[in-house]
Amino acid sequence: MADTRHFDVAIIGAGIAGSALAKALSGRGLAIALVEAQSLAPSQLPAELDLEHFDPRVSAITPRSKSLLEDLGAWQSIAAYRQCAYRHMTVWDAEGTGGIEFDCADVNAPALGHIVENRAIVSALLEQVAGSADIVAYSNARLQDCSRVDAGAGMRVQLEDGAVLEADLLVAADGALSRVREMMGFSTREWDYGHRAIVTTVQVERSHQDTCWQRFLTSGPLAFLPLPGEDGRNYCSIVWSLRDDLVDDLLALDERAFCTELERAFEGSLGAVLHCAPRFAFPLRQRHAIDYVQAGVALVADAAHTIHPLAGQGINLGLQDVAVLAEEVLAGHARGVSPGRLELLRRYQRRRKGENLLMMAAMDGFKALFEQQALPLRWLRNAGMRGVGQMGPIKQQLIRRAMGVG
Ligand SMILES: Cc1cc2nc3c(=O)[nH]c(=O)nc-3n(C[C@H](O)[C@H](O)[C@H](O)COP(=O)(O)OP(=O)(O)OC[C@H]3O[C@@H](n4cnc5c(N)ncnc54)[C@H](O)[C@@H]3O)c2cc1C
C-alpha cells in the first residue's frame, strides 16, 4: 500500500477557484495539497493577437475579483499578458425600444471590469502556486475516491495512480460536475435552463468601444465581450445562449453562414461579423448545493453553484467563496482550530449562501422576463429599462452591485 501523506487542506481541482484558494491559504503555516486531473506544468500562453489564439472561454472579472487576484499576486501577470478593460455596458431588448447604458463614469470608476481569457487567469495563479513551498501540487492526478478516516474527523483521498492523502479539510473545487460533491452525498437543487451557450471569438468590422454589449432575444441573450486587438482588427468573445433546439443548426453552419446569422441576431451593431473561430457549446444548468459544508468537507465555486452566464457572475461568486473560506480557515488556524471543524465551515456557508442565492434568483428573473412575448410584459420591461436608466441613484446601485462593490 502506498504511503499516506497528511495535509491540513487538500483541494481537488486547480481551475480558477482551486488554484486561487491554494494561494490564498499559503504562507500561514498550513500544509496544502492541490490535486488536478490535467497537467499543471507551466505552458506558454500564445502571444499572437489573432482569431485562432484567443481562449474561447473568457470571464468578465469584476473590480472586487481583480482586487483579490492582485492580493494573490496573479493580476500582475494577467495585466502583463493581455486583458480588455470595459468601461461601458449596453443592454437592449430585441422586442422593443427599451435599453439601458452603464458607464464607469456614473460611479467614478476607471472601469466596470475586465474581460480576461480563463487560461490566462489559471496560468497566473499556477505561477504563484509553483512559487509556494507549502503547496504540494499533484499534476495529472485524478481523484478516485474520498471518504472519512475511520477514527476521526479527517478525510482520506485516493488518487487514480494509487497515491493516498489525508487532510483535515477536503475542498471540492472540481467544477460543476464535482465528484467530491457526489461521493460525499451533498444534495443539490438543479434544473436545466433548456439552453446551451455557443461560445467563440469573432472579428468584427467596427471597434467594440471597450463596451460589453448584450442583446436580449426571446430565444436567449447574446453577448459581445470586448477583447484586445491591434492594427485595426477588432475582436470580441461571444456568448450566445439559445434554446437547445436552435443550437445544433447554428453549429452545423459553415463559418460564413454562421457569421451572417450572428450579425443578424446582433442587429449589425458592430458592423459586419467578418470571421469566427471554432465554436463550442456548453449546456446551461442552474445548480445549487443545499449545504456547502460537512465536517471536514467544503464546496466552493462551481462545485457549490452554477448560474446562467448572462451577467458573467459565475467565477466572481466563486472567487468570493474562496476569499471567505480562506479567511475563516486562516482565522481558525490562528486560534488553533482545525480547518475541518464544522462550526468554522458553517460560518463560511452562512457568509456565502445568501449572496449566491440572491444573484442566482436575479439571473433567473432576468432570463424569465426577457423570454416573455406577451405584449404587457414586453411593454413593462422596456419601460422599466428606460425608467431605471433615468434614475441616477438606482442605476448607480445596480452598477456597484454588478461590479461586486455594492
Ligand atoms: C458559456 C459560459 C460563459 C461564462 N462566462 C463567465 C463570465 O463572463 N464571468 C464569470 O464570472 N463566469 C463565467 N462563467 C462561469 C465560469 O466559467 C465558472 O464559474 C468557472 O470556470 C468555474 O471555475 P471552477 O474553478 O469552480 O471550476 P472549473 O473551471 O470547472 O475547474 C475545475 C477543475 O477541477 C478539475 N477536476 C475535475 N474533476 C477532477 C477530478 N476528479 N480529479 C482532479 N481534478 C478534477 C478540472 O480538470 C478543472 O481544472 C461562464 C460559464 C459558461 C458556461
How much of the sequence is in beta strands?
25-35%
DSSP strand tally: 20
In CATH terms, the superfamily is FAD/NAD(P)-binding domain
What would CATH call the architecture? 3-Layer(bba) Sandwich
Could you tell me the mean pLDDT?
A: 91
Radius of gyration: 22 Å
> Structural class from helices and strands?
alpha+beta
Number of domains: 1
> In CATH, what is the class?
Alpha Beta
Helix content: 25-40%
Bound small molecules, by name, code or SMILES, are: flavin-adenine dinucleotide
Distance between the termini: 53 Å
Runs in which pLDDT lies below 50 for 5 or more consecutive residues are none
**What global shape is seen?**
globular
Characterize the biggest β-sheet. 9 strands, mixed
What does this structure look like?
By secondary structure, this protein is of the alpha+beta class. It has a single domain (4-367), classed as FAD/NAD(P)-binding domain (3-Layer(bba) Sandwich). The chain is built from eleven helices and 20 strands. The protein has helices spanning 16-25, 63-71, 75-81, 118-130, 179-183, 244-252, 255-265, 314-334, 342-371, 375-390, 392-402, and strands spanning 4-12, 32-35, 58-61, 84-86, 88-93, 99-103, 113-117, 135-138, 143-148, 155-159, 164-172, 188-204, 211-217, 220-226, 234-243, 273-276, 280-289, 293-294, 297-299, 305-306. Strands 5, 6, 12, 13, 14, 15, 16, 17 and 20 form a nine-stranded mixed beta sheet that branches. Strands 1, 2, 8, 9, 10, 11, 18 and 19 form an eight-stranded mixed beta sheet that branches. A hairpin with a 2-residue loop joins strand 18 (293-294) and strand 19. Helix 1 runs parallel beside helix 8 (314-334). It is globular. The mean pLDDT is 91. The structure holds flavin-adenine dinucleotide.
